[in-house]
TrEMBL record:
Belongs to the YqgF HJR family. GO terms for biological process: rRNA 5'-end processing. It is found in: Cytoplasm. GO terms for molecular function: hydrolase activity, acting on ester bonds; nuclease activity. Residues 1-101 form the YqgF/RNase H-like domain. InterPro entries: RNaseH-like_sf (IPR012337), YqgF (IPR005227), YqgF/RNaseH-like_dom (IPR006641), YqgF/RNaseH-like_dom_sf (IPR037027). Could be a nuclease involved in processing of the 5'-end of pre-16S rRNA. This is Putative pre-16S rRNA nuclease. Pfam families: RuvX (PF03652). It comes from Desulforamulus ferrireducens. One of its GO terms (cellular component) is cytosol. PANTHER family: POLYNUCLEOTIDYL TRANSFERASE, RIBONUCLEASE H-LIKE SUPERFAMILY PROTEIN. Keywords: Cytoplasm, Hydrolase, Nuclease, Ribosome biogenesis. Its EC number is 3.1.-.-.
Length: 137
């Protein structure tokens, strides 16, 4: 089962995909947000092209596990996904995923300018890999 992981922000959406066996996550692309319709259209193209069967959306929570303003925006985006796509859609705690992605890129000696371009898709991959590693299907 191929799963698409999303790191939804105000300006970008990081997209990652699992391998067909559901063992590993790879960053795919960063969608620059223009409008909800364009965002969903591009996600639909990815779903079709890769045969995605489930969508996992990183849910930003505060450190005390409450949902803040950004989490509310993500939950509203999840509702739009549910309206558009007839696929199972789950949320996954994404606390510190961007920090983990940034550390991995720094360890790989990726320059600051290149990190900025790929951090969102790396964060999506970290979120998706956490879900896969937890055995949550």
């Amino acid at each position: 089962m191929r799963i698409m992981g999303l790191d939804v922000g105000d300006k970008t959406i990081g997209v990652a995909l699992s391998d067909p066996m559901g063992w590993t996550a790879q960053g795919l692309e960063v969608i620059r947000r223009e409008s909800i319709d364009k965002d969903l259209t591009r996600l639909g193209e990815i779903i079709q092209e890769y045969g995605v069967e489930k969508i996992l959306v990183g849910l930003p929570k505060n450190m005390n596990a409450t949902i803040g303003p950004q989490g509310e925006k993500v939950l509203a985006f999840v509702e739009k996904l549910k309206e558009r796509f007839a696929l199972p859609i789950k949320t996954w705690d994404e606390r510190l995923s961007t920090v983990a992605a940034e550390r991995m890129l720094i360890q790989a000696d990726v320059s600051r300018s290149k990190r900025k371009k790929v951090i969102d898709k790396m964060a999506a991959a970290v979120i998706l890999q956490g879900y896969l590693d937890a055995g949550a299907k």
